[in-house]
Amino acid sequence: MKMHFCIPVSQQRPDALGGRYVLYSVYLDGYLFCRVRYSQLHRWNEQLRRVFGNSLPPFPPKYYLAMTASMADERRDQLEQYLQKVTMDPNMLRSDVFIDFLKLVQLDTFSITINTAALDIFLPDGRNIQIEILTSDTAERVLEVVSHKIGLCQELLGYFGLFLIRFRKEGKLSVMKKLADFELPYVSLRSAGMENCKVGLRKWYMDPSLDSMLMDCTAAVDLIHMQALQDIEQEWAKPTQAQRQKLEALQKEDNQTKFLELSQEVRHYGYLQLDPCTCDYPEPGCGAVLSVGNDEISCCITLPDNQTQEIIFQMSRVKCWKVTFLGTLLDVDGPQRTLNQNLELRFQYSEDSRWQWFVIYTKQAFLLSSSLKKMISEKTVKLAAENPEMREKETQNLKQAPVSELSVQSPTPRGSNSQTARS
C-alpha cells in the first residue's frame, strides 16, 4: 500500500556557485520528514534502479533549461507520485539502498549527527524503558532493542509498533502517529514540534480477536494487558458496570488471561480513539469522538441540542476515502513541522442503497487513514487464511485494491493536498 508521502511546498535556495536550486519539503503522515533536492532524489533513483530494475515507477526527467512555474509544479507532483509508488514494494522498503538514503536525509534535515543516545520508550502502564541506541537507528531496529529488553518474542514484533504519543492535562493522552519502520524515532521525536510528546509502544492491529495470536508469549500478554487497563482508564474501552466489577476482581487475582478474555466483550475494546473533532453529519459543525477498530468506525456525535447520537460505519460499506490539507500556503522560508492543524478525512459510504460522502475534520486524519488501511489489510489476510484456495486470489486483490492507490492532488495555492484511498 502507498504511504502518506506528500510535498505540499518547495523553496528556492542559493547555491555555492551563485545559482539557485529547489528544496522540496517532504511530509510523511502530516509531519515534516525531510527536505531534499531533486539531484539527491535522482541519484537515489539510479541506485534503486541498479537493484530493482524496471520495477521502479517513472522518475521525473531532468530539465537543462530554467523551469517555468508550471514545470516546477509538475515536477513536484511527479516527485510526490514517485515517493508514494516506490513505497508500495515491500522488498524495496526493506532494502539497504532505500533505508540508508532516508536515514541520511532525515539526519541532515534536522542537523543531527550519528551518535549513541538514550531513548525512553513509554509503556502502556506508565513506565518508561530507557534503551541505548544510535540516533540513526530506525523504528524497526529500536523495536527489536525494546523487545529484547522486555523479552517479547521476535516473531510477534509485527503485532506491535512505535508511536508518537502526546500527554495532555489530567492524564489524557493522544496517539499522534505510528512511526514507519524506516523512520528514525530519535529524530522524529525531536522534529515533531510537540510538547509532552514521547515514543510509545502499543499493539498495532485493529482486530481484537488477534489477541489470541499472542497468548503464548508472557511479555506480549503483559503488554496487551497493560494496554487494556490503559484503554479502560482513558475511557477508550467502555465496560458496563457489571463488566467493570468482574474485570476489577480478575485484576486483583492477577489473572491476565481471563481479564483479556472478558475484555473481548467490552465495547470498543482494542479500538483506537481519536481526540474530539468535528464532522458534517447530520449537519455541519457537529462535535464527534471517533473510535476505530473491529472493522468499523464508531462515531459519537454531539448534536446542536447537545444530545448525543452514535453512528456506526461498517468498513464493508466504505467505498473510498480522502485526506485533504485545508491550510494556506506554507511559509516558504521555513516550512511548518506539521500539516495537522487543517486536515479533513472524507469517506464515501453506502447508505440506503446510495453512496454518500461523510466529512471528518481532525488533526489525526492521517492516523485515521492508516487505521482504515490496517483494517482492510487484516480482513483480507483473514479471508485468505479461512480459505487457502483463495489465498493467491486475495493477495492479488489486495495489490489491485483501490485502497492501495493513494494519490496526492495539489490544487493552487499549494497548501492544499489530498490523499485518496479506496476499499
From TrEMBL:
Keyword Protein transport carried by entry: yes
Region (Disordered) location: 386-423
PROSITE patterns: PX (PS50195)
Keywords: Protein transport, Transport
SMART domains for this protein: PX
Biased composition (Polar residues): 406-423
Record-annotated PX domain positions: 1-109
PANTHER family, per database record: SORTING NEXIN 17 AND 27, SORTING NEXIN-31
UniProt family annotation: Belongs to the sorting nexin family.
Name used for this protein in its record: PX domain-containing protein
Source species taxonomy: Eukaryota, Metazoa, Chordata, Craniata, Vertebrata
